[in-house]
Write a structure and sequence with these properties.
single chain, alpha/beta, five-stranded parallel beta sheet, 9 helices, 5 strands
């Protein structure tokens, strides 16, 4: 649907270690090279009070800006990106530069209130995303929304409001304690990842152990101790293998 201009959102909900990132990685493997523009970012506990932090990281990677770049190199890369996306207005570049924590060569041509500047920044980011999607369908992945400050959530809301007529797909993940007001529709879907049943855990144990022969008592102990959390299964089995216990 996204490829033909009817964008979709997939929200993945689950507790820590349940496999949200693994589901996303497996989905990415289904993409053929050159079939979409991929933008990835992750919210962080250490940046949860910093506006636009995950978006800034995503932008830098997409534009190719690195910590080793001089200010001149950063501006050169931003300029090249700016002129490759025709939908951006002249005010967009300094606003996006501020998201990237780049010092402005010249002050903003107009003085805005903080609320208005935030709105214009969101619009500039949205214009950049939609401009990118005109070249190839755009897939944007945002992980760990439970650590997001309000700014990326506002951007995601903007994406959802316009994506039904745009080739933009959004995939976002979060823990159960995160709550949102996004209605589930024909273009917005939520996947709830539950813990594995005991028999599913046993299958995973055998798979992760590379089919080592496990005594039933050990298998049962692992199933009970991991309580259906895939990450715990992988960690315990890896520990046993590394120490030669299996």
């Amino acid at each position: 649907k996204t490829k033909v201009g009817s964008g979709q959102t997939v929200l993945i909900r689950g507790e820590a270690g349940i496999g949200k990132s693994r589901v996303i990685e497996e989905f990415k493997k289904t993409l053929t090279k050159g079939s979409a523009i991929l933008l990835e970012c992750a919210c962080s506990f250490y940046q949860k009070d910093t506006a636009f932090a995950p978006i800034a990281d995503c932008l830098k990677e997409a534009i190719g800006i690195t910590a080793e770049d001089s200010q001149e190199e950063k501006w050169s890369k931003l300029n090249n990106e700016f002129y490759s996306v025709a939908s951006l207005s002249t005010i967009s570049m300094p606003l996006i530069a501020q998201v990237l924590s780049m010092p402005l060569v010249d002050p903003l041509p107009i003085s805005f209130t903080p609320i208005r500047q935030r709105q214009l920044t969101l619009e500039a980011l949205m214009s950049w995303l939609l401009g990118k999607s005109r070249k190839l369908p755009l897939l944007m992945i945002v992980e760990d929304l439970h650590w997001a400050d309000p700014s990326p959530l506002e951007l995601l809301s903007l994406i959802m409001s316009q994506q039904r007529t745009q080739p933009v797909m959004l995939v976002a993940s979060y823990r159960p304690e995160f709550s949102h007001a996004w209605p589930l529709t024909e273009s917005v879907h939520e996947i709830n990842l539950a813990r594995l049943a005991p028999e599913q855990t046993a299958v995973l144990v055998n798979h992760v152990s590379n089919d080592h022969s496990l005594p039933p008592v050990i298998l049962q102990e692992i199933v009970e101790r991991t309580d259906g959390v895939p990450l715990f299964v992988e960690e315990i089995v890896s520990y046993l293998i590394e120490r030669g216990i299996l």
